[in-house]
Structure formats: structure tokens, C-alpha cells
Automatic annotation (TrEMBL):
Database matches in PANTHER family: ARYLSULFATASE FAMILY MEMBER, ENDO-4-O-SULFATASE
InterPro entries in the cross-refs: Alkaline_phosphatase_core_sf, Sulfatase, Sulfatase_CS, Sulfatase_N
Gene3D superfamilies with a match to the protein in the record: 3.30.1120.10, Alkaline Phosphatase, subunit A
Protein name: Arylsulfatase A
Keywords recorded for this protein, A-Z: Calcium, Hydrolase, Metal-binding
Domain Sulfatase N-terminal residues, every copy: 64-409
Any one Gene Ontology molecular-function term assigned to this protein's record: metal ion binding
Originating species: Rhodopirellula sallentina SM41
Stored Pfam families: Sulfatase
Organism classification: Bacteria, Pseudomonadati, Planctomycetota, Planctomycetia, Pirellulales
Superkingdom, natural source: Bacteria
The keyword Metal-binding belongs to this UniProt entry's keyword annotation: yes
Protein family per UniProt: Belongs to the sulfatase family.
């Protein structure tokens, strides 16, 4: 039974199991009264609901295990339960998480592209406060997260958790070289494959790491375990258009199954030890779109649809490992994605077959329109979250840091989570108490957008990203910005920028304040990493 933003008495009763059945039988026998039975059932439902809220109110439960699964380039509309009318890809395992937990329908990544999103997700801070003002970094780039900055990993590590990051990192690390030549391009000849890698996940809050340094179409094509390469990149391969060093046995099609296996292995190993946190960063359905052979042709929509189905299967296997280990009740699983669907998925072809990866929203990966950054975010935690619930409250992935701190009973220091607000109250069908006015969006080309309530302001004439019209394609006499009523116009088709100048000014003033203060939450102003953050970008011809 689906209850939007609430709980059903019958849903709650299911959790009581055999005890509820026994109570029904005894009550009917002794009382013989349907009205009395209804009263007892209502009391029982209230008891179950109140037992769920106890953690939020008292913090009395043990720290839950936390598994955060991040898909790569997966559209909001690629999840069947989020797009039932225009979604044609079967995602039964992710749908099952939604039926067992809570679905956030207005959740966003801070950026519409991957590196900046990952920075914000792990640190609770907008990426454009750093030197990364647009685009992404590459596989040999230096670390983006400062050494002393709190991350999800370090927060939980210092709270008694065993922490692991498994999969795509894409936040930089210090790659060792045999000499001091500067790295240029994607095919450096002087990597020291035997030396230690520094400033990677192990030094950013994670006890264990297994994965790749960047996207699966970025070199080097070699696994990293903790702070060492697994083998040597002594051959050259290309997955996509980037050619570079590769370990001889490394193949793109094997990476997603490897991430699954390493995650299941970690869960199995830690099941009887301290609480654990696994940040599972999938490489799918990002390019290269490489479904395993057993998934080819399954979707009927081409390789992208097949790869999404395989991604869903990986989520199912990780969930099954948790459940079979007896950890279901007190494990929080969060499933989400880093940004919208990529154009590499051949979106027009998918739409021709009736599948809309962005559902009813405009745009896709890279864009300021919601198709670029409105993402699936589903949470299951049976001990605390009622099944089949929904929240339409506005949240952002940067909010994970404050939420996890709330869960483990820690107060964030002033130097951490400057843009993070806890969404834990939403787990209990309560309003999120936010000191932040709105949420800032950022595109691949560095354009800004601001969302507050139903209003969304874009400091761009077009998509701000990869979808036409791009900034250099917009007519000169077009408004310099865009303003949309997201309640009335979720598809962002009716630009109200010139008809509601007072709303546009109010949002622009708040956006400016959030940037200049170095934080969007309450607290003393702190410096950004860069002095000059340009609000209004000039379009560049491509």
C-alpha cells in the first residue's frame, strides 16, 4: 500500500508479524466485537509508529549500518516507480526499495555533472566554492577534497564505523611518477605503478578503498586497492575516445560486476563487527555503455536500457547481501544518482520507443534545467522508515553530511557542511528544519540556478549546459535569465523572468548572499577557496 507522506495502519501492522495475528485471534475470541478489534488495531498501529519515531526523538538506537549507492548518469525517469507512464525500463529492485522505504520526489544533486556532485555529496559543501568552477577533473588530477575537510567517511569513521569507498572515485588523488615531468593528456609515460598513491580515499575518511580513479572512460584503466595499483598499466587501451595506460586484464564490461562483488564481500566481512558505512559509487550507466553479455537485449530499448537493468540488478544483489546477513532492520540504504541521463544514451531514440529518461522534466546531464540535476533518492531503513512513503520536500545531496551527523548524534563544526541540512525528519513524515533559504544548482559550464519554494531562477538564457539551445545559440533579444513556477510548470516552458522581476531579484539577492557568505546555512561567514566567483557567465561559442 502506498501512502504519500504518511503511514497506513495496515502497513504498520505488517511489521508486527505473527504477534498481530495472535492478537487478532485472541481479541475476536474474547471480545467477539469488531468495534473493539478496530480500536485495538488502531492502538497497535500507533504503537508501531511511535516506536519508529523514538530514534529521532531520543537517539536511543544503536548506530545503523549505512550503504550509500550512487549511480552514474542515471535519469530521474529511468526508475520505473518514478516514471510509471513514460518509463519503459524495468527496475524491480530499486522499485522494491521504494516500496519498503521513502521516495524523495524533489531531490537534487548540486551539479549536473559528476565530479562536483561527488565533492558536495561527501563534504556537504558546494563545489564552486573550490577552484572547480566548471566541468570535471580527470584520472591523474590532484585531490579536490582538502586534507582537513570532513567527509561522510571521516564523520562516520570517528563515530566508530568501519568505512569503505568502492567504485568510481573521481575526486583526484596524488598519482606517483618516476620523475618530475608534468603530466599532459591521457597517456603519461612516467607513472610509477609500484609506488604508493597518496591523498586518495584512505586519507579522506575511508578505511578501505577499491575502484578506479575517475570515470570508466578516463585513463588509467586499472584498479586501485587502498593506496596501490592492482598490477601495472603497461598496455594501451581505450574505452571510448580516451586512449591510455591499462592493466592487461582490465576490461570495462567487468567493472560493474567487480564493484558489486567487492561491496558484497565488505558487507559479509563486517556483518558481525562494528557498524559500517559503504559508499558504493557505480560506474553505470555512464559511458562506456557496456552491459554484461547476459543483459544484452533484455530491455528492448538498446544497450543503455540493458545497462540500466544491470545497474538495478547490482542494487538488488547488494540489498540481498544485507538482508541475508540479518542486517536489514537497522541498515540504512540510500540509492541515488550523480546527475541526469547523458546524451550518450541516445535520448531521442529512447523517446521514440516511449522511454523518457528525464520523465516530465526538461533537459539532461550538464543542464540547469531539472533534467540535469533532479535525481532519484530513495531510502530504506525498516527500523525507522515506514514502508511505501513519499516526501515532496526539497532536498539536496549535500544534505547527506548533516543527516548522517544527526543520525549518529554529532554536531557539525563550523568548518564542515556549510551547505548541508539534515533531512532526517522527513524519514518520520515531519518537516525539515532548515536554516538554508534555498538550493543552488550548477551546470557543466558553470552557470548558476537558484531554487526556493516553487520558484526557480536560472542565470542563463538557455540550458546552461549541453542541451539546445546552449548559451551561444540563444537569440540576442532573449531575456538574460529564466524564472519558472515549478509547481505550475515543472517542464520549465513558460519563462516568467520579465513578468515577475521582483521574484527574480529576491532569488538573485539570496543566491548572491549564499555565495558571498561562504555558506548557505546558519553560521558565521567563512571564506570560499577562490575570491572571485562569477555569477553571470558570458556564453562561449563552441
Amino acid at each position: 500500500m502506498f501512502v504519500a507522506g504518511g503511514r497506513s495502519a495496515f502497513t504498520c501492522l505488517e511489521l508486527v508479524g505473527d504477534y498481530s495475528s495472535s492478537l487478532v485471534d485472541i481479541t475476536m475470541t474474547i471480545l467477539g466485537s469488531r468495534s473493539c478489534l478496530v480500536g485495538i488495531l488502531c492502538s497497535l498501529s500507533l504503537f508501531v509508529a511511535s516506536s519508529r519515531t523514538s530514534f529521532a526523538e531520543t537517539g536511543s538506537l544503536d548506530h545503523p549500518n549505512i550503504v550509500l549507492i550512487l549511480a552514474d548518469d542515471l535519469g530521474y525517469g529511468d526508475i520505473q516507480c518514478l516514471n510509471p507512464e513514460r518509463g519503459k525500463i524495468s527496475t524491480p529492485h530499486i522499485d522494491s526499495l521504494a516500496q519498503q522505504g521513502i521516495t524523495f520526489t524533489d531531490a537534487h544533486s548540486t551539479s549536473s555533472v559528476c565530479t562536483p556532485t561527488r565533492y558536495s555529496l561527501l563534504t556537504g559543501r558546494y563545489n564552486w566554492r573550490t577552484s572547480l568552477q566548471r566541468f570535471v577533473i580527470y584520472g591523474y588530477d590532484p585531490p579536490m577534497i582538502e586534507q582537513d575537510r570532513m567527509t561522510l567517511g571521516s564523520l562516520l569513521q570517528t563515530s566508530g564505523y568501519k568505512t569503505a569507498a568502492i567504485g568510481k572515485w573521481h575526486l583526484g588523488m596524488t598519482i606517483p611518477y618516476t620523475d618530475e615531468r608534468r603530466v599532459r593528456g591521457h597517456n603519461p609515460p612516467n607513472v610509477d605503478w609500484d609506488a604508493r598513491i597518496s591523498d586518495g580515499p584512505n586519507e579522506r575518511g575511508f578505511d578501505y578503498y577499491f575502484g578506479i580513479s575517475a570515470s570508466l572512460d578516463m585513463t588509467p584503466y586499472i584498479y586501485i586497492e587502498n593506496d596501490r595499483f592492482v598490477g601495472k598499466g603497461n598496455v594501451v587501451k581505450a574505452f571510448g575516445f580516451r586512449k591510455g595506460p591499462a592493466e592487461p586484464d582490465f576490461e570495462a564490461v567487468d567493472v560493474l560486476p567487480k564493484i558489486q562483488d567487492k561491496t558484497v564481500e565488505f558487507i559479509s566481512k563486517e556483518r558481525d563487527n562494528q557498524p559500517f558505512f559503504a559508499f558504493v559509487s557505480l560506474t553505470s550507466p555512464h559511458t562506456p555503455i557496456a552491459p554484461a553479455k547476459e543483459w544484452e537485449g533484455k530491455s528492448g530499448l538498446g544497450r543503455y536500457g540493458d545497462f540500466v537493468m544491470q545497474t538495478d540488478s547490482v542494487v538488488g544483489e547488494i540489498t540481498r547481501a544485507i538482508d541475508e546477513a540479518g542486517l536489514k532492520e537497522n541498515t540504512l540504504i540510500i540509492f541515488t544518482a550523480d546527475n541526469g541521463c547523458s546524451k550518450s544514451a541516445r535520448i531521442p531514440d529512447l523517446q521514440a520507443k516511449g522511454h523518457y529518461p528525464s520523465a516530465q522534466y526538461r533537459g539532461s546531464k550538464g543542464d540547469l534545467w531539472d533534467g540535469g540535476h533532479r535525481i532519484p533518492l530513495i531510502a530504506r531503513w525498516p527500523a525507522q522508515i515506514a514502508p511505501a512513503t513519499q516526501s515532496d520536500q526539497l532536498i539536496c545531496q549535500s544534505d547527506c553530511l548533516a543527516t548522517f551527523a544527526d543520525i549518529v548524534g554529532k554536531k557539525l563544526p563550523e568548518s564542515a557542511g556549510e551547505d548541508s541540512v539534515s533531512f532526517l525528519p522527513a524519514f518520520y513524515d515531519k518537516p525539515i528544519e532548515s536554516t538554508r533559504t534555498g538550493v543552488i544548482h550548477h551546470s557543466i559550464d558553470g552557470y548558476f540556478s537558484y531554487r526556493h519554494g516553487k520558484w526557480k531562477l536560472l542565470l542563463a538564457r538557455g540550458s546552461g549546459g549541453l542541451t539546445a539551445p546552449r548559451e551561444h545559440q540563444v537569440a540576442e533579444d532573449s531575456p538574460i535569465g529564466q524564472l519558472y513556477d515549478m509547481d505550475a510548470d515543472p517542464g520549465e516552458t513558460n519563462n516568467l523572468y520579465e513578468s515577475h522581476p521582483e521574484v527574480a531579484k529576491q532569488l538573485l539577492d539570496q543566491l548572491t548572499s549564499d555565495i558571498e557568505n561562504g555558506r548557505s546555512t546558519a553560521g558565521d561567514p567563512v571564506p570560499n577557496d577562490v575570491e572571485n566567483i562569477v555569477l553571470w557567465k558570458k556564453p562561449t561559442k563552441k
